[in-house]
Structure formats: C-alpha cells, structure tokens
Amino acid sequence: MSASEVLRLDGHVVDSLVLAKVLDLVVDSGATYRILEMEIGTTRRDPSHVRIEVTASSEESLEALFASLHVHGANREDAADALLVPAERDGVLPEGFYATTNLPTRVRLGGRWTSVESPEMDCAVVVEPDSEGAAASARTVPMHRVRRGDMVVVGSGGVRVDRPTPRGCGAGAGAGNDEDEDEDGDEGELGSLTGGGSFGFMTSDVSSEKPKALSVERVAGALRSARSRRERRSGRQEDRSPGGGADRGADRGADRVLVVAGPAVVHTGAAPALAGLVRDGWVQVLFAGNGFATHDVESAVLGTSLGVPLAGGRPAEHGHANHLRVINELRRYGSIEAAVQAGWLASGVLYECVKAGVPFVLAGSIRDDGPIPDVVTDTLQAADAMREQVAGVGVAIMLASTLHAIATGNLLPAGVETFCVDINQAVVTKLADRGSHQAMGIVTDVGLFVSELAAAVGALPVPSPT
Amino acid sequence: MSASEVLRLDGHVVDSLVLAKVLDLVVDSGATYRILEMEIGTTRRDPSHVRIEVTASSEESLEALFASLHVHGANREDAADALLVPAERDGVLPEGFYATTNLPTRVRLGGRWTSVESPEMDCAVVVEPDSEGAAASARTVPMHRVRRGDMVVVGSGGVRVDRPTPRGCGAGAGAGNDEDEDEDGDEGELGSLTGGGSFGFMTSDVSSEKPKALSVERVAGALRSARSRRERRSGRQEDRSPGGGADRGADRGADRVLVVAGPAVVHTGAAPALAGLVRDGWVQVLFAGNGFATHDVESAVLGTSLGVPLAGGRPAEHGHANHLRVINELRRYGSIEAAVQAGWLASGVLYECVKAGVPFVLAGSIRDDGPIPDVVTDTLQAADAMREQVAGVGVAIMLASTLHAIATGNLLPAGVETFCVDINQAVVTKLADRGSHQAMGIVTDVGLFVSELAAAVGALPVPSPT
Amino acid sequence: MSASEVLRLDGHVVDSLVLAKVLDLVVDSGATYRILEMEIGTTRRDPSHVRIEVTASSEESLEALFASLHVHGANREDAADALLVPAERDGVLPEGFYATTNLPTRVRLGGRWTSVESPEMDCAVVVEPDSEGAAASARTVPMHRVRRGDMVVVGSGGVRVDRPTPRGCGAGAGAGNDEDEDEDGDEGELGSLTGGGSFGFMTSDVSSEKPKALSVERVAGALRSARSRRERRSGRQEDRSPGGGADRGADRGADRVLVVAGPAVVHTGAAPALAGLVRDGWVQVLFAGNGFATHDVESAVLGTSLGVPLAGGRPAEHGHANHLRVINELRRYGSIEAAVQAGWLASGVLYECVKAGVPFVLAGSIRDDGPIPDVVTDTLQAADAMREQVAGVGVAIMLASTLHAIATGNLLPAGVETFCVDINQAVVTKLADRGSHQAMGIVTDVGLFVSELAAAVGALPVPSPT
Amino acid sequence: MSASEVLRLDGHVVDSLVLAKVLDLVVDSGATYRILEMEIGTTRRDPSHVRIEVTASSEESLEALFASLHVHGANREDAADALLVPAERDGVLPEGFYATTNLPTRVRLGGRWTSVESPEMDCAVVVEPDSEGAAASARTVPMHRVRRGDMVVVGSGGVRVDRPTPRGCGAGAGAGNDEDEDEDGDEGELGSLTGGGSFGFMTSDVSSEKPKALSVERVAGALRSARSRRERRSGRQEDRSPGGGADRGADRGADRVLVVAGPAVVHTGAAPALAGLVRDGWVQVLFAGNGFATHDVESAVLGTSLGVPLAGGRPAEHGHANHLRVINELRRYGSIEAAVQAGWLASGVLYECVKAGVPFVLAGSIRDDGPIPDVVTDTLQAADAMREQVAGVGVAIMLASTLHAIATGNLLPAGVETFCVDINQAVVTKLADRGSHQAMGIVTDVGLFVSELAAAVGALPVPSPT
Known about the structure:
The structure is a homotetramer. Chain A is of the alpha/beta class. Chain A folds into three domains: 3-76, LOR/SDH bifunctional enzyme, conserved domain (Alpha-Beta Plaits, 2-Layer Sandwich), CATH 3.30.70.2690; 83-161, conserved putative lor/sdh protein from methanococcus maripaludis s2 domain (conserved putative lor/sdh protein from methanococcus maripaludis s2 fold); 187-457, putative lor/sdh protein like domains (Rossmann fold). In chain A, 33% of the residues lie in helices and 21% in strands. In chain A, the strands form four sheets. A seven-stranded mixed beta sheet of chain A has the order 5-10-8-9-7-6-11, with no helix packed on it. The radius of gyration of chain A is 29 Å and the shape is elongated. In chain A, 63% of the residues are buried. The interface between A and C is large, with 36 and 35 residues.
C-alpha cells in the first residue's frame, strides 16, 4: 500500500542547505528515500541536479509530504497537469486546495507552465483557463476573496516551486539586476548575519512556543536512558568481575547525568523537586555556584530564598540578611558535609547530594557573598575540578544558569546530550554561540519544568521541613 | 509577649515614598503601627519628621523588622550603644551580626555616633574602640576578611542609616557639590527614567525569579474566590426571587472570570487544561483572536498546532497548510457552533465554550488567515463586542497574548483583579505602561502554568481524542 | 499670572504611595505645593485626609496638572459643576474633553454627584441631564461612538475620581465582598508579587521604549558633571596646596567615573568609542573580565571579535581560535602593559588605559580561556582589588555585563550615580533586585549607545589600525 | 601564490547539513572549491564520501580555513604526521598551536593515528611520543596547564576530527549503546526541537552580539542599491518612452522600499530620522497602525509621545490624554492629508509622506483609541490595501513592530530583501517561525538604529519645530 514518486531538485541545492533540508523532512515524515541521480556542481557557480525516489506509507502521506517539500523548491519529476476544482461558495475553497508558499510558483495546464502572479504565502491559486485548456493566467487568492466558480488548484500535482537564488549568487531583489552583481558580491560576506535562503527558520529551534509536555518527556527520556545504560553496565561489570574486562572504551561510562543549577532553581521553588531527583539516583554530579548553594541551604534552614519566603509566609520576618547568616553558619561548621553531619542542614539539594554521595563542585565568582566554605574561589582550580567530574557524563542539564552553563558547555565533549533550560532565550543562544552546538534549548520556566521533570521520572519532591 | 518600639524617619520621607514603603513593610511583617507624630514639610524643600510606634508579636520579630527597615533609613528613636561581640575565628562573624546596606551608616558607642567607612552592602561593621569606649573608627568588612578578635556590631541597636537624598534635591554624587545644584536641577526632569531613591526595587515585581507554586496558588485563589462570590450571589438571588431585589450596583456581579488567550496557549500544549477550566465552570468569558481559535480547532481536529504535532508524532504528515484547511472547513460550516453541532469539532477550548454556553469574542487582526467565520473583522465592532462582555468581570487572566491583553486591559475598570501570564517580561511591562496598573505580572511558561492552574482548582484536562 | 488651587486626597493615601506620587507629579510638572492640612491615620485601618495647595505658572498648566492627578484620585477641593459641551459632529469630541481613567468616577451637575457607568480608560464622559439640571445618568463613551449633540464633560472641574482601595484592605473584586475580608487578608501577604494600587506602573522605569537621545544625554551629563567636579577639586587643591586643607570629607573625591564592560562592548563594535572615552579622560577606572580583555586585544591586533571580523571582512580567514592565540601571546609577554611596551598591542581600550594610566581590574571567572596574565583568578582577591578602586567613584556605567555589573553594584555605596546599559531588560531588573536600587536602567544596544555617548561628550573613537 | 589541497568528508554529510556548511565556509573565506568525487548514500543509512579540492589565495589562508573546517569533521585527505613543538615555558603554548574542538579527535604520529583523550574545546593537544616516534598517548590540555617541554601539536596537519553522528542515527550518548537504537529512534521525531549535529550554531544568526555598524551599513546598502535600480529603471523608461517597452518582468519594479513602523519608533525618538528618510526619497511606501500614526502626530504637534516629552521637558504639563486630543483633532480635520493642508500638521513622518506623495496604509487593531480617520478598521480591507502596495517592493524594513511586521511578512514574496529591526529577539524569531525565512534579524535599539541609518545614507533628520 506504500507509494513512491520521484522528486527533483535543481539549482544551488547543496550549498544552500536545501538538499539537506529536503532529506530531513522526508525522514522526519517517516518516509524513506533513495538518491537516483546526483550531479553536483563542481564549483560554486555550477548548479546541481538531484533526483530522489521517495517512498511513503500511503498516497495520502506522500501527498502531504510533497506539499511540505514545495516550500523548498522540491518538485515532482513527473508532472501532470494541475487539478482544478471550482469553488462552491464565496470565501470557501475546495477541499485539498493547494496552499501557496511565498516562492515563485508555476502551474501546469494543457501541458503548459504558467507563472502564478503575486506570490504570497497561505493563499490558494486561482486559474483562468484559456480556450485551449491551458492557463491564461494564474494568481494567488486569499481565502476570503475566492468567489463561487473560481477554478482553484487542488493538490500539489502540476505545481512547481522555484527555489530562491541562494545569497551571494544574486540574492536580494532577484533577477534583472545583473549590473549589481559586483556590489552585491560584498553583501555575501555579511551572509552570516542573515537568515538567507531557507536558513532562517532554524532559528525557531529555540523558541518558547513549543509543546512543553514534549520537552519534559524528552529530558525524562534522556534520564531514563542514561539510567538503563548505567544499570546494564553495572550488570556487565558484575558478570565480568572475575576475569576483568579489558574493553573500557572512552564512551563506556557516558551514562552519568550532570546537573548545572543556578540560583533561580531555588527562587522559583524547584529545589524540592531537584532534591528528589538527586535522592532517587537520577543525578550523578552537580555543578553550581555560591548563590545556588546558599539559597538551597537558606530555603532548607529558613524557608526563604534571598529573603523571600517560598511557602508564602511573611517576607519581613526574615530580612535580606538571611543568606549572610546562612553562609556564616556554614563557615562556622567548616563545610556543607560537616553541617549535615551536625544535623543543622537536614534537607535540600546539597543535603541529598551529601547523603547520596553525589559529588558537587561549587565554583566561585566575584559576586559571591561569603562564600560558603566548599566554594572553590580560584577559577582555574574550580574549572579543573569540574574537568575531573566531566568524565563519563552522558547527559547534561543546565538549569537557569548562564555563567556555569557556558563554563560547563566549554568542558563537555560534543557527544554529551545537553539540555539548556532557561526562561531567557538569549541564554540559550549564547550557549550555542560559544560552541556548544549539541545543546537542545528549552525556553521555559525552570520552577515549573523541574517539578514536571521529577514527576515524569517518578521522583518525589523533598519539601523542606520548615 | 508582644514588643513595641518607636522608630523615626527624618528628611524627605513623603515625596520619596520612604514613609509608604516603611508602613508597607511593617504591615507585611504582621506588625502594627501607630503614628505618634507627623510633621510634614509644607513645601518640597522642607524636611519631614515622623515618629511611629511599631508593635510586633515578639522581640525577635521586632528585631528582624527593624533590621529590614534600616534599608530605608528608618531608625530606632531610642538609641542605645551598639552591641559589640568579638569574632571567634577568622572569616566567621558572631551570630546576629549587623548586615550592612549600601547607605551612609553610623554606629553609637560611648554615646557618640561614628560614621562607618566605605559603605558596602552585605558586610559586617567592625569597630576600633578608643580609650573612652567610643569608636575610634568603624568600617565595613566583608565576611571573609574578618579576623579573630575583631569587634563586630551585633543587632541593629545603636546603628543608624541615613536615607539617600531624594533625586532632584541634590541627588547624584551627593554632598559637597552645592555649586552643581542648578545644573542638577535639570536632571530632575528626567527623574522618571531612573529608579532613584528607593524606587527601583519595585521593578522586581515583574521578574521570572519568583516561587512559581505561589503564583499558581494566587491565581487559583482568585478563581475560587470568584466562584464562591458567584455561588453566594446566585444563592441570594434565589432567596429574593419572590420579592425581587432591584438591580444592585455595578459591582454586584464582579465575579465573572475572563480569560484572554493567545495562540501560544495551544502551541505550548495548554489547550486541554484550559478546556478543562472552561468545562468545569471556572471561566465565564473568553477573548481571543483568529490564531488561538484556529490552532485550538487544528489541535482538536488534527492534533497539530501550526503543523507541529502536540503529541510528539511526525511533523511532516500534516504540513504548514493544516491551519488553512481547518479555517476553510469552519468557513464551510459557517460558524464554530455549527461545526460543533455537526459533530466535526468535538473537543478543545472553543468546543467546551459552546457546550458550556461560555461566550467568546474573536477579534480580527491584519495577520489573520481566513479568517474563521466567528472572527469580528472590524476592529471597532470587535472592541465594542468585548466591551459588552466586560460587565461583571471580577478576574481577568491574560495568557500569552500581547495585542488582546493590552486591548482588554484598556477596557477593564481598575478594580478588576488582573493577571498577565507571559514568558516575556516585556509584555507585562508594556501592559503596565499602557495604564493597566492593577495587573499582576507572572513571568512564566504558559504551557506549564495553565496545567498547574487547572490542577490547583481540580479541573481535569480535556485531551483531544486524536 | 500663576494659578493656585487646593486639592484633596482621602483614604489610604500614605501607605498606598498615592501621596508620594501626587507630590512627585506636582514637582515634576514645575508646580509647587504647600501642605495645608494632614490628618494621617494613626493605624492602618484609619483613613487619612490631606489638603494641598498647588501653584502652577498658569491656569493651563494647573488644569493639565489636575488632569494628570485625577489618575491617582486627587480631586479639586473646590468643586463646581462639570462643564458640558455638546459634540458638534458624530465621532468627534469637543476640544478639551475630559479623558477618563479606569477608576470609579463621579461628575457633579446641578450640585449633585452622579457615578459614571462602566469605567473605562481613554473615553469621554457623556451626561444625560435630567429636568433639574443634574445628571440623570453619566457614562463613558469611546470617541468613535459619540454622536452629534451628546453632552460631553470638558475639563476636569466637577469630576471626581475615587482611588482604588489599597491591597490588603479589600482589594480585588472590590465592594460587596465583605464576607471575603478574612480570606483576602491572606492575599495581602503575597502583595509584593503584585503591582497593586498604583504601584505597578513604576516597572516602566525599565523599558526599551524611551527616547534614546535623552538617555545618551543623561549619561553624558553625568560624565561632564563628574569632570567639572574633578577639575574644581584639582583647582581647589592647587589653591590650598601651600597650607594643606584638612577637611577632606568622605565625598570629596566622588568624582571618578567607573566603567564596567562586558565582551559585547567589543562584539557590537563599541570598543573604539570606549577607547576614545578613556583616552580623552572621561573614564578613571575600568572593571572587566577575561572575555572583554581578550576580545579588546583580539580586535585591536586581528580585527576580529570571537573570530567575527568587526569591519566586515571575511570570517573564515581567522578561525574560532583567534582569541586563544591572542591570550597565548599575552601570556608570552607576561602582561598587557608589557605587550603595550613591546609595541605588539597598539590600540584598543586596554591600550588606552595603559597609556592614560587608567587602572583596570580584570576579574576571573570559570568560563575563562587562558586566562590572560592580568586576570585575577581568585575571586576573593579580585573582589578585594575592585573594592580598592571603588573609593572616590561618583559615576558608574555598566555596559553589557551581568556578572561584573552585579558584583560591582554590590560594592558601590548608594550615592554613586549608576547607569546600567543592556539590551536585555532582565539584566537591569536583576541588578535592581540584588539591591542596587540607585541604578538607572537603559535598555538599548550598547554598540550604538557607546558611540553616541562618545560623540555627545566629544570623544573621538579610536579605530584599530587593522 | 595560491594554494590547493584536497579535503574529505565521510559519513552522514548531506542530511546533516555538514557538506553545505563546509562549502559555505569555503566560499565565505574567499576560497574556491571543486568537487572531485561525491558518493552519496542512496538511503539514509548509507554513508557518503566526498572529496573536495579547495584553493585559497595563500598557504596561510588555506591553513586558517582548514582549521575552521575541522569543527565540521572535514579533514585533509593527504595526511602527514602532526607537527610537534615543545612548549618553551609553563602556561604558554607554541605559536600556531592546534586549538581543539569538542569533537572526537585523532593525531597522526609515526604514521599511526591516536585518539586524543578527553575532548574539550579551546585546548591544545599534548602528545607523549613512544619509542617508535608514534604517540603513546595524546590528550587535551588547557593553556594554563601546559608545562615547559610538553610536546604540543602545531597546525592542523596530521589532525583528524570525526563528525558527531547525526541525530536519529544513534545520537545522544554515542557509541556503545547499540541496544538503545530502537528507543532512541523515537527521539528522532523530536529532532526539530534540537540543534543536533552542527545545526545549533545557526541560531546565532539572530543575536544582539553583532557589530552594529555593519548592520547599519548592510541596510544602508540595500537602500542605496534599490535607489540605483529605481534610477536606472526610470532612465530606461525615459529612453524607451516613445516606443513603449514591452518587457515588464515580474521583478522589473522590485525596487521600492517599504517601511513598517511600530510606535516605539516614535517613543525612542527615531521619528525625525525616519521623516528625513521619507523626505529624501529613501522610502516608497509605509505601513503602520493607529499607534504609530497617533504618536507621530502627537510628537509633531505637542512634542510628546504617549505623554512623555521627547526633548526632555516636563512630563506633567501634557497628560496621558495627549494622544486622545491629537486623534480627536485629526477626526475633526477628516484625514491626515486635510490636517497637513490646513497647516495644523507641519512635521513628522506622515507629514513627509503626504508632502512626498509616499502612500501609507494604516491598519486598525482592537487596541486602537479613536482611531484616526485614515485607519482602515476592517482587517480584511486593511490587508487587501497592503497587498496592493506590496507590488514592486524590493526591500522591506520592519521597525519595532510585531503585528504589522508579521502581517506584512505574510504578504511579501520570498525574493524581497527583508530586515527586521527589534530590541526583542523573540520578535525576530517569531517572524521567521511564521514563514518569512528571508528576513535578516537585527536585534538592536530602533531609536539609535534609524538615526544611524539616516546618517549612513545622508538623510538629515527632520526635527519637530516644538
């Protein structure tokens, strides 16, 4: 019941990323492809020609896929005439109408190709057939302007979309400005500023407008997958323990989960959920700074974060100096672990780390008050301490942290599955700009996200006793 | 067991908002006040003097409150000498140490007041007593620099903080620049750009760094409170129905809940939760645009939002044209209600509105595709339709909407409890700038927020059957 | 020609900030006030009554001022009847029409006060007079709905606006919910989350929607003012040098200008302008980190910033490793100063600092590559080094820096005039939240801002020779 | 003097965008390429092999280019041994050291390839040679940890970087987890959320951290280019006018410049500069809304924008109702043109439009006050009016407008060079997400940007007389 058809791509399809994008869409749709022919331009000025056989599970899937490929200038090789259906009513289009892109488009009627006037996206194409069955004219029509009896193109058969010329090859105002070529050439150098060609929409990878339950599930899946790798490995190790196994590949241990946490994790009320994740074994190592540690302890001991009560109590009872008192006490105890042993610190993320033997690195920064005694104040030493803990990390989750997230991103091998959760889109962009390309950005509220994540893997929050 | 003490405020305490802020903090802390004396400057140049008796539930509460009031230059009237305690150890301060502000500060020792050198916030004050028991010198010391034996001020007794001169009265580089007064006068005109004096920290009202569970609970509380008002009113109406009570004032019915929803509600996966809130009677009227309506129906009928599958399926099956097909179908049916009657639309927020008889206004905008037939394309008519539905609204919740939120904010009386939920802080600022001062801004992810809100009031999400 | 009139404020005017705001507006408008009477409620439940005589330069000014004070519930004491003028034409209001707020409003006609129905902001008030000349009814009417002959209120005479009840005193859905008082009381505790009453609009202090030329001029003014204070002081010191002046107050030297610069200063192309400001004596001390320093040198030596050419050349020639090569060279030289002496570093901000003898502190952070030898890697030592340079600073300008800006803000006394320039509104909010209330936030593009600032004070940019 | 060398790409180079990116970098660097061999995998599971000859202007350029290509796993075909140079000093690397990526890396020594331990970006590679001259071990070393005598790899010869496996083909924790393949397969469906492979860094296309003078120059270049096309066309038309020219290609007139302006253009003080651009013929058509128009007229007539004085005067003189008075006056005149004819409106952007005969479309929205009479309140009619003006537009500049920018973006053909200038990165992302992929996003302050743009093309600002 599967359906196949051949599509063609012509022009600057390699260096403009179009080929890559098209193959991507084919695979994402669940279809498969086979490249039948590929003439790649040997230099930049030479166009390429590619023929790809696409196989989908049904005619409907194939049709839907081809519709989405039109945006990228990928057309059916085997062009029949376009199918025309009259509108039955003013302002309503026939079912299955062809929805336009904003690219130059042609329709085939009576074996002849006619350009569609006024390219505009999300419109229908209305054709005025001439006496010989070809199109006298074709134009885009917004839905509300279609009139009863208008002949509307249905399906993507007989429709061709021409890809925009890639930037640097005469981009901009397009054809007809040959004389500008030389001037325009300079613009090409600025290309990296633009979203030219079909580049641009990838910026949407980092957007707050995504289904959030999916993002939660995605991270939860990474946590579960890392856990099952850890369990398998520890199983194998036991099996082999007598003889000792030699094959300890570099990736052998890429199953530890690293969490990098900023103070907003505490401010937004996510500390109990993170504490639950630590206690239940979902986190193998924690990186943070003096701020996170202080507020984690402050919220555990006093129930406030930067003096703001997390449970809705009265703000003024405990003043802005809460965090200083907490730091001072920790300095008296000498370390977080000592404060736990003494029973003074009895809940919170760091408490759970101490209890579960999860190592943590607290790196110093110039804005630190105190700092608490576990903080490594020399930044080179702190980075070195982080380096040592990075070995074997397979999943890294950055939570509302800029400085520590970027510092950690710099230390991680490219293979580490990395999630950067922040309410500020700019932070995620920055992380990517600094070279951590593998990071998946999740623009959301860390306070709610971590709670949902803990729930998704079944870790119970550990509320403070206060 | 309650404790009282008198505090004084001197200087420009009225026009600088300091008095207001101090009374605010007193009340927020659970203490009470009584104004004993108030000499208000009759003109702007005249300083004021205020004496306020503050009563708190315990000595500890009072001490904590006075510590927090220091920031604003409110000092104990009854000044004893400061209490000095030696540090027992390098880098550790005595318990209860006085934590500094960044304001000019004096300490009293041997009955004499000495200025603290180098004002800096979050430090301790170390005093070098002279032979007569007064302070030879006093200076701020960061925690890590304190040395064993240093005499550290403990508690806020004997400490005075001087309020910064208000802007326009010689603000800026402060004392000593009398000659600049005239020039500086001009700067006063720009005052509204600054956060001068102690204004600035109110900007933190709109921040993403807040405990999110509290924000959820706050809105849930407003929903519950409106519901109980509705129930009481309907109870009263039944009681009176025989005799009929003539129509009671404008506020009588300020118990309806208005939701203004942007398309991101659907994109982020919050539509089922919102549908649940509508179905269970938590929402009395809905304002939205063509985008929200389209994607709500798209997700109900096709399981996608702008072509992105909400349940994690394959993106390409349904292309970018999904929303156009949905609009076209609705145009064929003639209205959302007709599509519900015909059984074509069987879930989603608008479906629940139709089922529950919750009125909705869909207002048009120039970026609309289609639009769907219920959209009021004339903006004046749309605003008038919204005006009619605003009567009796007591709670308004704006969800990820800029245009509709501001438009609605313009229509609401000041008494309406308004929540503006958006991931973008700028939207909330904009709403406030346009005059809707009563709005509480919640900077968070609407996708997660609405789900938690529905859970908080016990409304079950209504997932799409797809 | 000046005009005076008495206004009254009733209710919770002190703790709701209303009195402060009203006096603020009076002063900002150029008018003066005299408080005639002030009965302040001794406890929180008691209302206050204030009578203030306001004097403006003309009747028109006074009228305009009173119109703006209406928003805050400040009304003329001396109420005459409202002035009614018929609309001459459909959809056009009479000149000088009263523009409504969203607060409860009454109009006086025939000596009787009538409530205006459906409070809505930015409308006119149309009155239906009864037979006795009083108002049978009054309602808000949006401009497009006024009809020829409608009797429209003109001016603010005879109009009263009632302030909204402050939060915690029955805020929310307003009148009629006496039974809710106790429940609602709890909400008061969350007050700091809200922008209740007329608080909220101060958040607009930090907005990108401000006239930018004014912001530039404001900072330029601070630079000029600090310079003239420096010059006067140095003049005085010369005068006195023989006898030696003893009285050198704390503020004596609060005339140094501190710049805190983040790497984006270089990335956005602002380094030449900042170099010009340093060279021409507008900056006395610089705080930055390894990133700023590296990119400043990278742009000076190689013409790129993080490998991106600042002058529009080709990106690929110099790869992502440019900054590493620059750091390595500086490490070879041993210090920035040595690199300047050797002639290897011959332009840029740090070059100008070395040449002009402007001290700089480069503080380390965990994300640093290298670092360059001048960076203080121990964060406590770095903060201490910054502390020493803070003495005598009167103006601080934070440019596109979060970490260093907050760290510096923590060290500065409250009197220092502080400007925080960043394209990200959240950074400014964060700075204020951490206690630096005196900061004026300027949400703008640092790349363009610094260039305009340099131009405003007449400092020529110093372009790199590359 | 040019230099050539062959590079190889192996693996999933097409569907992972790697090939495209590599060719892009080659071209951007000024080098040229010739594809020697291209075996493309016919299905998704089959790897590809590509050999490309790259020619650069010099050995140095070629070396720099190859260094930058390493990031993408493009290696020299012709591998010699790596060059080792001993560090002369602790903490200082030899000149030309190889700077690492975070990808799996190998070095060749004695003809044998050795994996580099602990991949980490921005480090050097230190090799421990064995007795036979091959590498016993190779590891990344951060600069500060290199010790005198360490053997450091210099140049990119003899270094190979392996591309990360593309997502969906075993991404995530990498090798060794074959058993996970099936589970991981599901994750591929979520791929579009990630920046997997080397995708991610393209998000940096929209960032505030770009040299701003270049962005200004880029837009100025587009304006100049459009102008010269207009002039050439009008020249040609004159030449041909007798005979009449038939060739009216689609692109013939793609030389008009469209500006879409939001109210922040006025609020930030950019109106005079935009007025100058209109007056001097740089703008052929303007789209805006009631807000922009109102504030443009308000600032021209009263010198304020939303009541805030643009020249720094006193805010309170003119209240919040200023814009209402302006709208009311325009309604009295009947149209903007009538107000210009009557001499009431004598400056500003719209004034210049009327004077220069530049058409404008003012589209209505539900938040409009008034509106002014030129506003098209029906959104379908407004969009149709915009459609008519879109013909012949070759350059579109969106200034601080979300609604109108997206609406316009929907109407424009893909070939139109589009710039979206906004201080909010999210707006630009949104525009791209809605399909306007050709837009170049410029994250900056519109107030300063437009002034610099006007200066760059030599248009003098037209200040208001007020």
